[in-house]
Amino acid sequence: xxxxxxxxxxxxxxxxxxxxxxxxxxxxxxxxxxxxxxxxxxxxxxxxxxxxxxxxxxxxxxxxxxxxxxxxxxxxxxxxxxxxxxxxxxxxxxxxxxxxxxxxxxxxxxxxxxxxxxxxxxxxxxxxxxxxxxxxxxxxxxxxxxxxxxxxxxxxxxxxxxxxxxxxxxxxxxxxxxxxxxxxxxxxxxxxxxxxxxxxxxxxxxxxxxxxxxxxxxxxxxxxxxxxxxxxxxxxxxxxxxxxxxxxxxxxxxxxxxxxxxxxxxxxx
Amino acid sequence: xxxxxxxxxxxxxxxxxxxxxxxxxxxxxxxxxxxxxxxxxxxxxxxxxxxxxxxxxxxxxxxxxxxxxxxxxxxxxxxxxxxxxxxxxxxxxxxxxxxxxxxxxxxxxxxxxxxxxxxxxxxxxxxxxxxxxxxxxxxxxxxxxxxxxxxxxxxxxxxxxxxxxxxxxxxxxxxxxxxxxxxxxxxxxxxxxxxxxxxxxxxxxxxxxxxxxxxxxxxxxxxxxxxxxxxxxxxxxxxxxxxxxxxxxxxxxxxxxxxxxxxxxxxxxxxxxxxxxxxxxxxxxxxxxxxxxxxxxxxxxxxxxxxxxxxxxxxxxxxxxxxxxxxxxxxxxxxxxxxxxxxxxxxxxxxxxxxxxxxxxxxxxxxxxxxxxxxxxxxxxxxxxxxxxxxxxxxxxxxxxxxxxxxxxxxxxxxxxxxxxxxxxxxxxxxxxxxxxxxxxxxxxxxxxxxxxxxxxxxxxxxxxxxxxxxxxxxxxxxxxxxxxxxxxxxxxxxxxxxxxxxxxxxxxxxxxxxxxxxxxxxxxxxxxxxxxxxxxxxxxxxxxxxxxxxxxxxxxxxxxxxxxxxxxxxxxxxxxxxxxxxxxxxxxxxxxxxxxxxxxxxxxxxxxxxxxxxxxxxxxxxxxxxxxxxxxxxxxxxxxxxxxxxxxxxxxxxxx
Lengths: 269, 657
Fold this sequence. Notes:
A: alpha/beta; 11 helices; globular; disordered N terminus; B: two-stranded antiparallel sheet
């Protein structure tokens, strides 16, 4: 199965990825490619291996077989932090936030981790503590706070925020690293319709203006079909289908295994 | 061979009982009982009080001690402390349990008297009968140990597998949250578990007394050895813990057979066996499994959802309180005020007290290493005292035996500790916080036994002399030296706290996956913090040696470090001012008590330090930050009121116009 049929070279690509946990084969020979400046969908029923694939792509899990390439560099053995510095960011199914930090501090830390890294030694000897942000940093952080409508809670610790806002913070933290590729693990779960609109607008803007390539895992199939240029369907650890939204919608295997009544009902309505 | 195996089964049996109790309690209540040794000592001391001091018969004294007082102790501690800890973070749990282990022995001393006990009886009548099965001499005390292990093992299996109570305990192990939803109170089961655990602690204590005597330090050390068996059972396997406990006892006995008697190496190696077992197990497991976390596989999804995050001290206030990016808690004003007071005091108070002041300043430097590694880094390291000891003995060796300038030797002492901190940081990077605590206390105890006992360092208990530098040859100038070093280190910590590195440290302790995926290197952050903290402890240790005019390794034993930590936690483990306050309190308070109160009150300071650490269950930030917050709030209120009045009056005036 070909991994990519577009013109632009993929910004993130997995080839023949397999992950085995003892006797359990969580992924088997999966090929996925994420195009720059577009949203790619990854769907499948619970237990299909989506989160495992995210773990492999982001470097938190080492594959049993296969390779991962980021911006045409082989990063299969690279750590998660190395991949992050090379331009890969991700969000988590359960937001992984730093509960002791404020919203602004999340974005500042993420920005500095990839743009202006400092060392313990220099920080220890630098009087005045946290250095003043430069113009680019201020602009980037304020921009993200603005587009994600987080300005009102910028100086609040994230521990006090509701789930929906926490998800926005996590996306903002990921975008603050100016990623070339962004993995979004069910970013809409728990969001109300207003927050969904805000998040969708911010993601579209990042795709259009910064050329970020995104891989979106989402159970809201109609959303995935509407925003993604290309979609991969996983089932029991193997790639069941790939193609444009229309091709996925028309694929009988996908309709039986995953889409089922949902799309049919949508079509009828 | 057989006599050694049979003899080894005695120690092994005590390890097994302790390990079984520790594992069962941790699995069912989520709390690792660091105070097991202290509880064992308390009950054993009470048994001695009844049997020897008041002449009660063995059976009556044993029944009252083991079946009434021991379970009651568990119940009282459950309602007074343990029930508040269940949903606390690991740091809070460890600090509170260590605090309890610190304050139980002095309570026993206050209640049962401060007498020297040279020989303690067990449960066998005196004179102890000796039997010779298979031509091997076995005492009645030993037989009681074997019988206890067998009876407890059988009873444990029967109760856990075949009774309704056992089913409830097993349900609670799987998911306390779900259990409570089925109408069974986890609290009721917890009370029972703690009562049984306390009984087992008491039994282990009374059985150990004839072997190790009635000394609280020996008890804590013996039970700390049982930690090895618990770790080998990965904190959840009862059969493995019991098996390894028995095995360690036999191994110790066999090594005794193989090694030359009366050798200093034998004396050092024998008590180190459990700690060597721990090190080997952890090395093997982390190499094989990659990670080792006490939370793995514990509880159900609902329990994980309501579990506390492993954040800064589990401080609820840390989540609630707005912390602006430039307003991170740094405590510079109160630190400076305390330093100024100490400086003035050094030149004004009676010279008798200045020596304590100088020592207090040196302690404050060591305490800052805890502030960095545990307060900021969230790593529960229980061996900072060992690094301080390394700094002390190194600086004394270099300054006295090799003619180095004293302050250069002190700095070198800190730098020698740095690679040790680095290696320990690397070894523990894949371990959960409780395992880190257990590994670091094990490392400290190993150093105590294998390194600090060497004659080159201990000099038969006298230590190696070291003189203060020429520019600080009085207690007052030594105090100033200590305070200057303290301020320098505190300045570094404040800078780190308020820098991008501080944010990264904070990020790593809340969510390692989240931190890694934005490009933060966990390895770099943790290892550098460990190395820096070890250096600070080493330098502080050198200063302590200078203020004591000798580096005495016995002053740096790991169990004493638990009292240091308890003192610091009481004052505030995330506060520089707390470190200085704790340092000064640690030396001045016992001195005041010693001079102005009768001898019987000598254990009160340690008791209060321990109780202070127990109080962390209620106030995770410590007293100094709490008082600081209250004063700041009061000042803000006082300052705001006149402002409002001015605005209100100007508004009134403008409306009148």
